[in-house]
């Protein structure tokens, strides 16, 4: 009798548990049907990143060194005053086509110097950057610290498309229909800038790319806002994964090897088991 009683108790507890879960599910569904959740401002105004095609896209993608050099110039002239690139060394720029002499000059002329400490006096000073140094960190005097851009295309959904969309999205404004539901967005708060590609719609960073020909490309490419945004996005793809091309090449080699090995193994199988019933 005791085992039967214990089994009965187990069934009762299990049934009660299922009943409570079903009741909670029914309450949730009925509440959602009777009073559906209201659309938030982010849902109404936030845009997904625009489409962006880069030479590095896809499993066979390759970096365009000319584009990467244009993107580095945009970073140097526009972004570097606020954003760090602390995971990249100056000498890494040789991978995108700069000569050793050019890299040394870039490092020496970089406006932010390397901090050094005098161990005897305990004081801090500065020295010129060397090619072996990483890009020095930027200490921004404003409110908050802008993010380091070394891995930004890996850290944001959409990667380079997000960066490109953010840089070119300042000119877009909320629609009249969206403002009718969320009138508080008719006026952007002081010190903020509306951008529908940013997570909470208002961003503290002012538009960095404000006009065409903000920089001058040495290869003759017209420096439109759209072109500069594409190029710096491509450059930040490279900073996030500078070995991507080698990884792609290794992946292709491995796939080809596996295909050939599979063919040879199948041929060996046919030869060994020829005429044998199995």
UniProtKB/TrEMBL annotation:
<protein>
    <recommendedName>
        <fullName>Cytochrome c1</fullName>
    </recommendedName>
</protein>
<keyword id="KW-0812">Transmembrane</keyword>
<keyword id="KW-1133">Transmembrane helix</keyword>
<dbReference type="Pfam" id="PF02167">
    <property type="entry name" value="Cytochrom_C1"/>
</dbReference>
<dbReference type="GO" id="GO:0009055">
    <property type="term" value="F:electron transfer activity"/>
</dbReference>
<dbReference type="InterPro" id="IPR009056">
    <property type="entry name" value="Cyt_c-like_dom"/>
</dbReference>
<feature type="binding site" description="covalent">
    <location>
        <position position="82"/>
    </location>
    <ligand>
        <name>heme c</name>
    </ligand>
</feature>
<keyword id="KW-0349">Heme</keyword>
<keyword id="KW-0408">Iron</keyword>
<feature type="binding site" description="covalent">
    <location>
        <position position="79"/>
    </location>
    <ligand>
        <name>heme c</name>
    </ligand>
</feature>
<dbReference type="GO" id="GO:0020037">
    <property type="term" value="F:heme binding"/>
</dbReference>
<keyword id="KW-0472">Membrane</keyword>
<dbReference type="GO" id="GO:0016020">
    <property type="term" value="C:membrane"/>
</dbReference>
<feature type="transmembrane region" description="Helical">
    <location>
        <begin position="12"/>
        <end position="33"/>
    </location>
</feature>
<feature type="binding site" description="covalent">
    <location>
        <position position="83"/>
    </location>
    <ligand>
        <name>heme c</name>
    </ligand>
</feature>
<feature type="domain" description="Cytochrome c">
    <location>
        <begin position="66"/>
        <end position="186"/>
    </location>
</feature>
<dbReference type="InterPro" id="IPR002326">
    <property type="entry name" value="Cyt_c1"/>
</dbReference>
<keyword id="KW-0479">Metal-binding</keyword>
<dbReference type="GO" id="GO:0046872">
    <property type="term" value="F:metal ion binding"/>
</dbReference>
<dbReference type="InterPro" id="IPR036909">
    <property type="entry name" value="Cyt_c-like_dom_sf"/>
</dbReference>
<feature type="binding site" description="covalent">
    <location>
        <position position="205"/>
    </location>
    <ligand>
        <name>heme c</name>
    </ligand>
</feature>
<feature type="transmembrane region" description="Helical">
    <location>
        <begin position="249"/>
        <end position="272"/>
    </location>
</feature>
């Amino acid at each position: 009798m005791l085992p039967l009683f214990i089994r009965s108790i187990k069934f009762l507890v299990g049934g009660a548990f299922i009943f409570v879960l079903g009741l909670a599910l029914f309450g949730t569904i009925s509440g959602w049907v009777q009073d559906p959740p209201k659309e938030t401002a982010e849902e109404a105004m936030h845009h997904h990143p625009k489409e962006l095609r880069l030479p590095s896209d896809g499993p066979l993608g390759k970096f365009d060194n000319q584009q990467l050099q244009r993107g580095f110039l945009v970073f140097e002239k526009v972004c570097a005053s606020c954003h760090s690139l602390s995971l990249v060394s100056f000498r890494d720029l040789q991978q995108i086509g700069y000569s050793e002499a050019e890299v040394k000059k870039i490092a020496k002329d970089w406006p932010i110097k390397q901090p050094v400490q005098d161990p005897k006096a305990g004081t801090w000073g500065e020295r010129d950057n060397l090619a072996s140094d990483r890009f020095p960190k930027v200490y921004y005097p404003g409110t908050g610290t802008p993010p380091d851009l070394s891995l930004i295309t890996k850290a944001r959904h959409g990667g380079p498309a997000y960066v490109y969309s953010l840089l070119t999205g300042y000119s877009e404004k909320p629609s009249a229909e969206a403002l009718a539901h969320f009138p508080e967005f008719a006026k952007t708060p002081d010190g903020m800038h509306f951008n529908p590609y940013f997570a909470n719609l208002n961003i503290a960073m002012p538009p960095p790319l404000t006009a065409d020909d903000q920089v001058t490309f040495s290869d003759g490419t017209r420096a439109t806002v759209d072109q500069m945004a594409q190029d710096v996005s491509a450059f930040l793809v490279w900073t996030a994964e500078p070995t991507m091309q080698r990884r792609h090449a290794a992946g292709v080699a491995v796939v080809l090897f596996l295909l050939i090995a599979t063919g040879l193994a199948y041929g060996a199988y046919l030869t060994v088991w020829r005429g044998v019933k199995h």
